[in-house]
Specification:
This protein is an alpha+beta fold. It is built from eight helices and 15 strands. This is Mucin-2 protein.
Length: 255
């Protein structure tokens, strides 16, 4: 049939367009393939189509996960309760929760706002940003020096005592109830300490005022309060004695 066979000059033109200036047809194909995404052939697809492998799927191959778990050698602390996920994307299934203040092995791999950890030998994923090299501050800790406060004081006073006792175990003398003011209400505590150690205690309580429910702290004739926290430590008037001026104890009032 007329026109069924292309003219020889057209075939030559089509053929030459697939050759680069050096005459190497394969060089163009290689350059094109380098820019393609990683793919895998779907053996169940009769037409032989290929499926793109996502970065997450590539990260979660058995070989990649096994290598990450084996190489994990760093531990971090959880700073809050975290959900445990099977993977770092929308296909993830929740497997449970990981409590706060737990030390976990990490692989160093992260993706989509999640970090990979190793739990019971298995790779799991948690929300990024809640793992720390430093052990989180524990409100209570372990008070092992035998000191205590009356059960009738406010819960916040109990927290203050437990926290100070755990972090300054050499301090064993605490004053709570007496007939006047906030002490009578069970919302104030005197921590018997002096000198530089007293400042360390005062600063410790001030730094954790929110966790401990602290309203204000007095030490060494100085006061710090939540309401005027922007002013830092403020000087106080002379009350006439070492004890009245709080040189021999840290006074803490809670909410």
């Amino acid at each position: 049939m007329a026109g069924s066979v292309p003219a020889s000059n057209l075939l030559a033109a089509d053929s030459s367009s697939a050759v680069d200036s050096s005459g190497d047809r394969d060089s163009i194909r290689e350059r094109d393939l380098r820019d393609l995404p990683v793919v895998s052939r779907d053996s169940g697809n009769a037409r032989g189509k290929v499926a793109v492998v996502s970065p997450v799927d590539k990260m979660l191959t058995a070989e990649a996960v096994e290598k990450a778990v084996k190489q994990a050698d760093s531990e971090l602390w959880t700073t809050t309760t975290l959900n445990l996920w099977t993977r770092p994307d929308a296909k993830a299934e929740k497997l449970g929760e990981l409590a706060s203040d737990k030390k976990v092995l990490v692989t160093g791999r992260s993706m989509n706002g999640r970090e990979e950890i190793v739990l019971n030998g298995q790779a799991r994923w948690v929300t990024a940003g809640y793992l720390s090299a430093d052990k989180p501050f524990a409100l209570g800790g372990d008070c092992t020096n035998g000191s205590s406060v009356p059960s009738a004081v406010s819960p916040n006073i109990t927290l203050v005592h437990e926290a100070v006792c755990a972090n300054f175990p050499e301090l064993t003398s605490y004053g709570t109830f007496r007939s006047d003011g906030e002490h009578a209400q069970g919302i104030a505590i005197d921590i018997m300490v002096s000198g530089d150690r007293g400042w360390q205690v005062a600063e410790f309580v001030r730094a954790h005022y929110a966790e401990l429910g602290v309203s204000y702290v007095i030490y060494s004739q100085s006061i710090w309060s939540v309401e005027r926290s922007g002013e830092g430590w403020r000087g106080m008037e002379d009350r006439g004695s070492t004890t009245a001026n709080h040189y021999d104890h840290v006074h803490v009032t809670t909410y």
